[in-house]
Design a protein that fits this description.
Helix 3 links the parallel strand 4 and strand 5. This protein has a 7-stranded parallel sheet, sandwiched between helices. The protein is globular and about 55 Å long. By secondary structure, it is an alpha/beta fold. The protein has 9 helices and 7 strands; from the N terminus they run βαββαβαβαβααααβα. The two termini are 35 Å apart. The longest helix is centred in the middle third of the chain and has 29 residues. The chain has one domain: NAD(P)-binding Rossmann-like Domain (Rossmann fold).
Length: 247
């Protein structure tokens, strides 16, 4: 029976991905900074492990406790919005520590065993911000674009070992926990000089947004795919952006 490890599974996309794969009969290792009892189905096929993706010791302990991993889903992430002109560099570094370096560290941690077994799949959850220009999200977009480039480069590097690499690109999930945790403080994050076109940009957000189930289904398709497809947009708005791009 296949095993999948999911980062950031306490809520939002990660929680739904864990639940979805459990329903499909997989062994699920749901990881989160602080394990919370009762938030996922009680089952011998569902384990919850502590994990901080910015801490090397935490990663090593989690991967050792997880055992063989057939699929890794790098879902843990943090958001950041606002005018780039005033974005504190310390905050930008923290965004990259989780969204970029945390993903890299997790991939490095699972690759040796996957390579030895000659199989495995890594799914990196990025964002539809990589598909179209979204103002007032420059640091966040940059942290996700780095993972897009990493993933594309790893495809031919890891293919000889039977390891597949995939991208899932969710659209705008206004009702998700991630969006709530990344609440935009307009007054603090947008200087007066930017206010007019910032209001216009936020007023143009799509009426139809991405659901957590859209992302879980896209991750399932990515894990199961053997066609060589790299990108899997999730949600109607992401699909619309993806259709305009020529890969």
């Amino acid at each position: 029976m296949n095993s999948i490890l999911i980062t950031g599974a306490s809520s939002g996309y990660g929680h739904e991905i864990a639940r979805h794969f459990h329903e499909l009969g997989w062994n699920v290792i749901a990881t989160m900074r602080t394990p919370q009892p009762g938030i996922l189905p009680a089952s011998s096929r569902m384990r919850v492990l502590p994990l901080e993706v910015t801490d090397a010791a935490s990663i090593a302990a989690c991967v050792a406790a997880a055992g063989p991993i057939d699929a890794l889903v790098n879902n843990a992430g943090v958001g950041m919005g606002g005018a780039f002109e005033i974005a504190p560099l310390g905050d930008i570094r923290r965004i990259f520590e989780t969204n970029t370096f945390g993903v890299m560290a997790m991939i490095q941690a699972v690759l040796p065993k996957m390579r030895q077994r000659g199989s495995g799949v890594v799914v990196n959850v990025t964002s539809s911000a990589t598909l179209g220009a979204f103002p007032f999200s420059a640091p966040y977009t940059a942290s996700k674009m780095a993972i897009e480039g990493l993933s594309a480069a790893l495809v031919p590097e890891l293919a000889p070992f039977g390891i597949r690499v995939k991208l899932v690109e969710p659209g705008l999930g206004l009702g998700t926990r991630f969006a709530q945790n990344s609440a935009f403080d307009f007054a603090a994050q947008v200087p007066p000089a930017y206010a007019a076109h910032a209001m216009a940009a936020f007023g143009a957000r799509p009426a139809v947004t991405t659901k957590e189930s859209d992302v879980a289904e896209a991750v399932w398709r990515a894990v199961e795919d053997s066609s060589g497809q790299l990108r899997f947009p999730a949600g109607a708005d992401a699909l619309a952006l993806w259709a305009r791009r020529s890969w």
